[in-house]
Amino acid sequence: MVGRVLTRRYRLEERVGHGGMAEVFRATDLLLSRAVAVKVLLPQFASDEEFVERFRREAQAAASLSHPNVVNIFDVGEEDGTYFIVMEYVRGRTLREVLHERGPLPVGEALEIAAQVAGALAAAHSQGLVHRDVKPPNILIAASGQVKVTDFGIARATSASSLTHTGTVLGSVSYVSPEQARGAEVTGLSDLYSLGASLYEMLTGQIPFRGETAVAVALKHLQADPTRPRRLRPEIPEDVEALVLRLLSKDPERRARSTLALKEELESLARRYDLEEPTRLLQRAGLGAEGGGDHEDAGEGEGVGGRVPRWVLAAGLVLAVTLGGLLGARALAGLLFPPEVVVPSVRGESLEAARLKLEAADLRLEEGPGLPSSEVPAGHVISQDPAPERHVRAGRTVRVVVSKGPEVVTVPAVEGRALREARLDLNERGLKVGRVEERFAPEVPPGQVLAQDPPADTNLVKGALVDLVVSRGGAGATVVLPDFGGMTFSQAEQRLADLGLQLGEATGREGPAPLGEILEQKPGPGARVPQGSVVDLVYSTGSQDVGPPAPATVTPEAEVAQGALKTRVTVQVPEGPAQEVLVVLIDDRGAREVHRAYHPGGSRVEVPVEAKGASPLVQVYLDGSMIQELALR
What we know:
Layout: E1 5-6, E2 10-18, E3 22-29, E4 34-41, H1 43-46, H2 49-63, E5 73-79, E6 82-88, E7 92-94, H3 95-102, H4 107-126, E8 129-130, E9 139-142, E10 147-149, E11 156-157, H5 178-181, H6 188-204, H7 214-223, H8 229-232, H9 238-247, H10 259-272, H11 277-284, H12 310-327, H13 329-336, E12 340-342, H14 351-360, E13 364-367, E14 381-385, E15 391-393, E16 397-402, E17 408-410, H15 419-428, E18 432-439, E19 449-453, E20 459-461, E21 465-471, E22 478-480, H16 489-498, E23 502-509, E24 518-522, E25 528-530, E26 534-540, E27 552-554, E28 559-561, E29 564-572, E30 579-587, E31 590-599, E32 604-612, E33 617-622, E34 625-631
Parallel strand pairs: 13-16, 18-21, 23-26
Antiparallel strand pairs: 1-2, 2-3, 3-4, 4-6, 5-6, 7-9, 8-11, 9-10, 12-15, 14-16, 17-20, 19-21, 22-25, 24-26, 27-29, 28-29, 29-32, 30-31, 30-33, 33-34
Helix pairs in contact: 4-6, 4-10, 6-9, 12-13
């Protein structure tokens, strides 16, 4: 796509991002000679009328908004089946990139970003539009510091009665509201929950809920309470923590009176926690404006109610005059009104180096509670408040968070566990599976872990590898290979597992056979191989003449028997590397997995489903990201 010119006007220069439905390019508007961003609908969705309509609806929804914190929409078009939207190009970074680089943000800065996002959402909500996917990757921070909200790709008009939530792409599960997770009606208050989850991450460096699967995370949004932010970062003010927890309430009505009211509350808190110390010192000395407001941290000389006695003010005035005579007017001005200095960056510096660097800039260092970090060495600075390049008064204190070094975890015992269960146990501790060696073990079922290195109860750095030895079954056990030709890929994969064999290399080949059908196998049919052997498969990727199918569909002919609905869900895996396909059924019996397996790119997966209830739903995930939600009735 790079180098292509759309409608003889927009030249695609560089791919800068992608989402669930589209790719984003930096482009040049040849007519107006300006940089723009062009969002191009992915080819596998371009032939689907529903997706195309949703894509157009995105442009209409966002184009109707005019707000400094919303990315502007300039144009929408189509050329040779390629649908695209032309948007304002924001020179800066996403909030996700900022958090990855800096870790937890200073409290005032996080509140200021959240306030600007709330301003964008207030503008959208006033027009009946719900964003539905508020998360750090969709929040842009311009070089000027201005915040821009983008990707109204799954926004919809709350007043539109002809559209329902079924069949629409949902937001990232780490930030999804409880009502979205259960498939209920979504309102502007759902956006506030997602904003609360994003603010939680800005303040603590962690998302509110973690889990091994998308379903596990979604269930925590529905049922669990998040860890209080002050337990992760004690310097967070109590009123800020209370606001975050309120936004993460399961009850939408408790989150805020309105989006505009939330914006004003965030702005007020941002001002409060972005005050500069010299100003507060002047207030404590009684040198504020006449009839001034609150005087914080009153000294011993104050009387009842915090008022300073007149004799103290008079003495202070005499002292000021005396100092003026001794030091001169310029020295007195420098004492009362320190000059502004630029805060240097001390991130990554050792604590002592950071202290010297700040003292050289006429600033003071205050060390906050340490945090574990696998990226910043122990004793070095992770983050600072105020942020670098801020202009502050000389003498101000800069608070820093210092790394405790990598987090250490204990290796669990996985011997005797199935390989998949061992992988989940290790992932739960923050560890990864390293080298997997197979050995014949006549008395141990194939796929069961025989040994692990390092052994259980060893302390490792989080993210370290654990090597496993897995049983191949008995050395004498052999299997006669069936003919996999004509089977679907998922059928062949299941048959291999039933025979105690493993899938080796899966290769796609274009041809007239149906998409995903097995064309060849190695070793061939009838070959006798040891149990646990690897079998390579070649499958059909279909013909180029056939348009790409929808990512997931429901078989129209559904059987209803004894109140249960029996049908099949067909999932199309996009071209490219193999991906994990997860199908979740939500009905009167709750939410549960009905299929989870890796399938090669381009394959077609059929999953039988039996549901109960009046309005069962199916959610389809690819590599942990929800791509579609389908109504079965």
